[in-house]
Amino acid sequence: MKRPNIVFSEISRSEQLPQALHLSLEMLRNARSDNWDTVISLESLRNELISDYFSTPVSADEASIVADYIRKILDVDKQLIELGDSESQLLKGNLQKVARGKRALKVYGSM
Fold it and tell me: Quick one: 13-109 is in which CATH superfamily?
């Protein structure tokens, strides 16, 4: 996937966390479609956006809104981790099948 061209300086501070949540939801949508390369690209963008947001201290007025966005992003991350674990187990099983196949070929090839 081509990495989206997002210029963080063009995103107002008030839109950074909503954009980070949007990227999180896009990550989840792509994970559900097994587009893991896209998930990784979006995660990189999201991390940059969040780092940029927190480069300026959060005011007391923003604290509850920020906490709400963080909770929502963490909820999405939990789902992403569960999907990633499932994908990892699937890949592990496939690799074990390939390894067994190679061993069988080796055994039959030496007969």
Answer: Flagellar protein flit. (1.20.58.380)
